[in-house]
Amino acid sequence: MEIRMLRTLADEMEKEVRERILPFWMGTARDPRGGVYGLVNEEGIPDPLASKGGTLQARVVWTFSRAYQLWPEQAYLDSAYHVWRFFLDHLWDNKHGGIYWLVDSRGYPLDSRKLTFANAYAIYAMSEYAKAFRDEEALKNAVFLFQQLDRIAHDEQGGGWLEGFDRDWKPVSDARISSNDMISDKSMNSHLHLLEAFVPLAQVWRDELLLLRLRECIDIFLNKILHPETHHFRLFFDRKWTPLSDWISFGHDIEGSWLLVKAAEVLGDTDLLAQVKEQAVQIVDCVLAEGLDEDGALVGEMNSAGQLEGQKDWWLQAETVVGCINAYQISGDLKYLQTATKTWNWIKENLRHPSGEWRWGTSREGQPQHRPLVDFWKCPYHNSRMCFEIISRNRQEE
């Protein structure tokens, strides 16, 4: 029965990503001038004048590079290359290295800061592109950027990576990625995406320093970011890793639970992998107990008073499905597979848009959020990756 449940999930998700999500990004979201549009409104109408974020374009490069590895078809190669050229020609700084935070609709820099968060996604995208297409230029730039971040952003005294820099890689005082964040020296979010970026890079470039940094990143999560009693990630820190906030982000918790396992698998350390797997299941248990509503959808955050905040955004639900499947495969406990299926059913009922892409989400009460289908943050990375993960995991089980 369990094998059939996982196979059913995988079959449905293959249809979701190949017949709905990816066609939207190859069609409606594709900007014929290069890359994808920076904004597509709720009605599915692109704004050709909208600015384009480096993170969005990097995530789309990653998505089509990963799709091609599962289904090596010309359409995915063409889509990956189309966004890759815009990324390389307009977001990549040929003089100093790294990607800009924001460019205008045709690629002129509007915000040339080099934020660690966005440049982690650049490594992620370039590494996956190099892996999919054996592209030496992509690999060269990914290696260069890893070394650049290690030389400039890595904190040799306290460990980890600092948050942000200007175009010339000089530190900036405010490296927040949104107005909702705190000004801090270090953040969970940047380290989470460095962690995920180092994995595909290590798969194409087995470098001793890279593996050392990947291990360091895991250690930081286990010993600095993860609260030893609550099993939640703390979000913002000073340079010495003193926590600056006690808010909880359920989506990042459950996303990190399975990304940590992926990272430990790459290192091949069986003791570390066992430790990470144990923590992953504990993280998922806490998230489901505190943040999952009866309908199967995850709520965004918990504030300092222990009250649920935020809405039921698309990315939270995608990460819930993967985190639960990962916990099921570690523990063998059917409840995680059942929860993943329940969340997936909620997604199908509440997030599908006629265009093929998902809606942004709903309020906690279930009212649709009227927000764009594509913008700086709305991308195919979470929902496509959910599909890719479940399909890949099902193939490994068969």
UniProtKB/TrEMBL annotation:
Keywords: Isomerase. It catalyses: D-cellobiose = beta-D-glucosyl-(1->4)-D-mannopyranose. The keyword tRNA-binding does not apply. It holds the Pfam family GlcNAc_2-epim. This is Cellobiose 2-epimerase. It is an enzyme of class 5 (isomerase). Catalyzes the reversible epimerization of cellobiose to 4-O-beta-D-glucopyranosyl-D-mannose (Glc-Man). GO terms for biological process: carbohydrate metabolic process. Belongs to the N-acylglucosamine 2-epimerase family. Belongs to the cellobiose 2-epimerase family. HAMAP family: Cellobiose_2_epim. One of its GO terms (molecular function) is cellobiose epimerase activity. It comes from Anaerolinea thermophila (strain DSM 14523 / JCM 11388 / NBRC 100420 / UNI-1). Its EC number is 5.1.3.11.
